[in-house]
Amino acid sequence: MNSNTFRAPVRRTAAAAAVVALAAGPVLLAAPAAQATDGEHREGRATAAVLRTGLDVSLLGETVKIPVRASLNEVEAPESESETALSVKVEGAEGGKPVDILTADVATSTATVDERKAEGYVNLAKARVHVPGLPSLAIIEVEEVTSKAVCETGKKPVADSNVLGYVRALGKKVTLTAGGRTELDVPAVGRVTLDLSRTDTTSRTAAATALELDVEVNPLNLGVAKVKGTVTLAQATCETPDGPAPTEKPTEKPTEKPTGKPTGKPTQEPTGKPTQEPTGKPSPQPTESGDDGGITTNNGGSTPTQNLAETGGSSATPYIAGGALALVLAGGGAVALTRARARG
User: Fold this and answer.
1) Between vectors from CA 342 to CA 336 and to CA 344, what angle results, nearest 5°?
2) SS3 of residue 220 by DSSP
3) Euclidean distance between CA atoms 31 and 114, whole angstroms
4) What DSSP element (H or E) covers 21?
5) DSSP states of 293-311 as a string?
6) CA 263 from centroid of its chain's CA atoms
7) Where would I find the H helices in 143-196?
8) Of 191, 230, 217, 233, which is closest to residue 94 (Cα–Cα)?
9) Are 72 and 4 in contact (CB under 8 A)?
10) Which of 111, 181, 238, 276 could covalently link to 77 via disulfide, CB atoms 3.0 to 4.6 Å apart?
């Protein structure tokens, strides 16, 4: 079975040093990601932990105080990580004897980050949590719990936590309300307060915790081993990345002016006047002639451009007219000659 072991000091001086060293660790782990300055590209972040403890153990009437800061399968990414250890052990917090803080059949935590998504995930099954002073009685037993936090670029962060199956605290079965708080007080043993399925989201972050316990244990009020603090099971967090970094400059600079005129404008100016009048519109009325021989049309027709005598004529008309005049003159001469002879 995989395990993590933590040694706790026994002497007062060593215990005081351990308080400083062990108490500082969780502060660093729990510190939020640094905020990016203006113009800085922010990467995503994800964390996952099967177990975290923040317990203070008092031994021998509080003459010796030992902080117990333990974690199991705690991972953090930008780079993908996964852990599957099944137990965590603390030594020196109970008369020099090791204490299995947590044992489980399944204990998996993963944290992954890429350019577009950060995700933390925890799965814990058949788990028992113990504290110093109660070696045979688990402060909490769970059948299965899961937590998941997903932060994806362009989407709202999502936090989800589930408690499946039974839950027992200090040996008693507990009925939990989703998103609620349950308190359990066992005389001569202690008190446990449970927060179930806590989730928090913002515009860029998400956090999910399956179970969080406030523990105060003092078996038989003897003060031999008094324990007070918090235990967190199955916690996952994430922070949304900014997405792929944009290129420094656009691939092509737009031209300041258009290369050509719009196609909607005509390519050349229209001519000054149309080549002919529309056929549907009547021609203007002819102006009246200055002498009596002028011709005026009153029927809306076109004004003739020549004299009526020339209408329908051709280039031979003058010669025909000349020949006719000669015949008339000759005929007239012949008539006059005939009459003269008759009078004679």
Assistant:
1) 105
2) helix
3) 21
4) helix 12-30
5) T-----SS-PPPSS-GGGT
6) 40
7) none
8) 217
9) yes
10) 111
Pair of tokens at residue 147: 């937590």
For residue 200, is it left (φ>0), alpha (ψ between -120 and 50) or beta?
A: beta
Walk along the chain (344 residues) and give the pLDDT tens digit of each residue: 444 554 444 333 333 333 333 333 333 333 344 444 455 678 899 999 999 999 998 876 667 788 889 999 999 998 778 999 999 988 776 666 788 899 999 999 999 999 999 999 999 999 999 988 787 889 999 999 999 999 999 999 999 999 999 999 998 888 776 667 888 888 888 899 998 889 999 999 999 999 999 999 887 665 567 899 999 999 999 999 987 755 555 555 655 665 556 565 555 555 555 555 555 554 445 444 444 444 333 444 444 444 444 445 555 666 666 666 777 677 776 667 767 777 65
Q: Specify the amino acid at residue 160.
A: D
Length of the chain: 344
Tokens for 230?
């918090």
Amino acid at 18: A
CA 8 from chain center: how many Å? 48
Report the candidate in 209, 206, 120, 110 with the shortest Cα–Cα distance to residue 163: 209
- Distance of alpha carbon 140 from alpha carbon 340, whole angstroms: 170
Give the contacts of 9 (CB within 8 A, at least 6 positions apart): 15, 17, 18, 66, 92
State the Cα–Cα distance between residues 335 and 319, nearest whole angstrom: 25
